[in-house]
Amino acid sequence: GEGWHNNHHRYQSATRNGFYWWEIDLTYYVLKLLSFVGIVWNLRPVPEKVLAEGRAADAERKAGRKPAPVEERGRLPKGALDAPA
Question: By the 8 A CB rule, do 62 and 54 touch?
């Protein structure tokens, strides 16, 4: 999970630091396994809003625009929660 430490700063209480499928977080997988056998519990997922904000910022970067800082972002752009094409 240390490789995705920036995600930890974006949403501190999430169990998983790899927010996207390509961000492999081995610590999360170990914790998930331990939760199946009851050793750990209360694993907190990343809220959809946080993921949508990240997707919107990625879209801004792809379009060649600098995304607004997280604190200044208002409502999500229309379609931000839609699955990528």
Answer: no
Residue 64 domain flag: yes
**Domain span at 44:** 2-72
Write out the DSSP string of 11-24. Answer: STT-S-S--STTS-
Report which of 25, 30, 52 is spatially closest to residue 40, judged by C-alpha positions: 30
Whether residue 81 is contained in a domain is answered as: no
Ranges of the chain with pLDDT below 70: 1-2, 68-85
DSSP characters over 32-56: HHHHHTTSS--PPPPPHHHHHHHHH
Q: 46, 45, 7: which is closest to 23 by C-alpha? A: 7
Q: 46-66: per-residue pLDDT in tens?
A: 888 888 888 888 888 888 887
**Whole-structure pTM value:** 0.61
In a domain, 55, yes or no: yes
